[in-house]
Amino acid sequence: MNTEIEKLISLAVATGEITEKSKATILRKAESLGENLDEVAMIIDGENALLKSSQNINQNYSSNNPFETKTEKINFVYAFKMFINNYPIVKYSLIFFLVCLGFFLFSVLVTLCI
Questions:
Q1: What's this model's pTM, rounded to 2 decimal places?
Q2: 40-42-48-51 Cα dihedral, nearest 10 degrees
Q3: Is residue 62 classed exposed, middle or buried when 0-12, 13-18 and 19+ CB atoms within 10 A define those classes?
Q4: Rounded CA Rg of the chain
Q5: pLDDT digits over 12-59, tens only?
Q6: Which one of 6, 15, 34, 91 is at 20 to 30 Å from 106 when CA atoms are compared?
Q7: Distance in angstroms (rounded) separating the CA atoms of residues 83 and 7
Q8: In angstroms, rounded to a whole number, what is the distance separating the alpha carbons of residues 92 and 55?
């Protein structure tokens, strides 16, 4: 699937609900790019179902922070995923940082064991 369509879907998901207007916009863009409309509609419906199921979980979720809900956390995760996917240099920098952190923690562990 085209990256432009994936970005549009990620943006629609980040809002917390994929509206009919958003779905129509994404389908028009997919049609203009020559994508399979049934496949794109199925992906949109799947993302919408995931959002609704997460909202159902949110109803049973009690947070220690009354100002933060599970939906806000999920939206943050989608926004972070969209940010990482749109800027590959950030993705590779994050991977490099995590690898270096792993080596550092391993060396500390080895030093403590000796």
A1: 0.50
A2: -110
A3: exposed
A4: 19
A5: 888 777 888 888 988 898 899 898 888 888 888 888 888 777 766 555
A6: 91
A7: 10
A8: 32
